Amino acid sequence: MDEVPDLLPVEPGYKNVLRVRLALVWLFIAGAALIAAYALAEETLFAAALPILALVTGVLVVAVAPVRIYRRLRYGLSDRLLQVVRGWLFHTDTVVPLVRVQHLDVVRGPLDKMFGTASLVVHTAGTHNSIVTVPGLAPDRAAAMRDVIREHVRTDFA
Amino acid sequence: MSEPTLPDDSAVGPPERLHPWFLLNGLRRSLRGIGGGYALVAYFAVSGRWTSAIVAAIAILVLSVGGTILYWMRFQYRVGADEIRIDSGVISRRHRSIPFDRIQDVDITQGPLARLFGLAEVKFETGAGDGRRAEDGVLHAIALRRAEDIRSLVRGRRSHAPKSVAASEESPPVYAMSLGRVLLAGLFNFSLALFAGLIGFTQTVGQPLGIDPFRESFWRKLFAASAPLEQFVLSHGVAAVAGGIALLLLIGLLTGTVRTLLRDYAFRLDHVGAGLRRRRGLLTKTDVTLPVRRAQAGIVASGPVRAVFGWSELFLQSLAQEEKGRGNHELAPLARDAEVDAILGEIGWRPVSGAFAWARVSQAYVWSFALALSPLLLVAVVQSMLLWPLAVAFATGLLVLVAFRALEWRRIGYVLDGDRLLMRSGWWRRRLVLLPKGRIQSIDYRENFVSRLFGTGTLQFGVAGGRAQTHLIPAIPTGAARLLRDELLGSVP
Known about the structure:
The complex is a heterodimer.
Chain A: E1 8-9, H1 13-40, H2 49-72, E2 74-77, E3 81-86, E4 90-97, E5 101-107, H3 110-115, E6 118-124, E7 131-137, H4 139-150
Antiparallel strand pairs in A: 1-2, 2-3, 3-4, 5-6, 6-7
Helix pairs in contact in A: 1-2
Chain B: H1 21-33, H2 35-46, H3 50-74, E1 76-79, E2 83-88, E3 94-99, E4 105-110, H4 112-117, E5 119-125, E6 138-143, H5 144-159, H6 165-170, E7 175-176, H7 179-188, H8 192-203, H9 206-209, H10 216-222, H11 227-235, H12 237-264, E8 268-272, E9 275-280, E10 285-291, E11 295-302, H13 304-308, E12 312-318, E13 329-335, H14 337-346, E14 359-360, H15 364-373, H16 376-386, H17 388-411, E15 413-417, E16 420-425, E17 430-436, E18 442-448, H18 449-453, E19 456-462, E20 472-477, H19 478-490
Antiparallel strand pairs in B: 1-2, 2-3, 4-5, 4-10, 5-6, 7-8, 8-9, 9-10, 11-12, 11-17, 12-13, 14-15, 15-16, 16-17, 18-19, 19-20
């Protein structure tokens, strides 16, 4: 189920969002490794390898992962269904019938604002997987999709 | 504190209070709620400061009693024409209004003491997401007659058709359990977990207390009078162990039976206008109405032993939560296939005990599991260098696990039956899920790097309410998953 033709890619700016987010995570890990290295410095000389290893891994992840995540992330909106496809190692393909949507959010975090993206968050009544997110959309596109989906929202189990 | 008078106060009926019985019950509740307080008292007592301990104990008592009385005084509810208002809180007031249209069902629970006073606890389920955390709307103690009035009022509003509870009393129940059936259900409720727990108990805490049925001394004391048996047990350590296991099995069976008897005594399911009404309980009686239109899925559960005797258990997954977070509403604790079909027929669902053309899933279900276990074979190799019997036992254990997985695989299947999806799973915990197409909230198809090697993935369905982990089809071939998904969502209105 890899390439379904009517699926669209998200904004290229989303790659930058991912880069910054991953960089922050790995900076935190490298910092923790640095502290650990100081603590262990007297026990073994290899302690210094910890922060270096973390830093190298971090750089590699930031360089490689965002492009791949971006390439794998596709979404599609038909008049009845919303589909989100993401991931390779752990691949997920989610389909939500629009009539099942309970409510909708358009979310913009500080990183989203920096790179001109937004996330559309769709809530269903399901217990499992009740929140489906489409990240990396252009803000107008997210708002337009929200309006399309909103037309279908109704509580049909009342 | 003056009450803000709302203009439409007259439309929501006169204010009513809880029965004073609540004071006793609420006190118990609040005394139970302050664990830290007791720790403080205990700390004072242990460290020898008796005055402080007594002062703290009195303070706790006064605060609890005062708090409960204040809460009771400030708690009012009003039953209006189309909503219920509950005003509560001492310092921060909360005015909650629950429209009848949004009430999923009305539960009436009667504890043993409340039954003596003719009181009941009424719970309004609105199916709001936080149903497990916050109490949606609970009236802790009101007269049973009033509770039934309120329920028939709500029910009348909900179904838009007047009906009398009295009439349904006379019609035969949809399903009912005799005492013998309840006891039989109790036998099947024997819990392996409890059994394991008991063994653990006797081996740890029990030993210093002298309660260890695996020891000869335990039996020696027990049968001090009968010399021959004592001789037998003393001379045969094996007999002591066998006796210990038998005793624990007996305890396990007894607790299962007692628990089931308390919960399911006089189990009765009736059809009332909008849904099914379930009454059960020996000491604490519960009376729950389940609106059928809120049903999201049905689950028929069984086990290898129960299946041999042709018994199964029926649950209904509904938007409203069962009490104590059990998730699904139990419709029948122990029923024949025909009875399950009868109950399903009563709520307008087709029977499930027919022969279906089950589609099987890929054998990858077994092989990927074996692959995941394979690193453990290294452990066996290491063991074989040290102590070969251990290695054999370990390897056998792994084989048994894989064999169980294969047994499970044989049972897994799914079939699209008209407007519903049937999913079968499990060998030890057998489940048959009935999922109407229209109740599917979302569908996830998941692959990972291992399952992709086998060309399979997991199809997971999002369903509202309940906590069922069973709404998934594991190890389904990619093409079949895609086909099934298109068929399911293609018919969504």
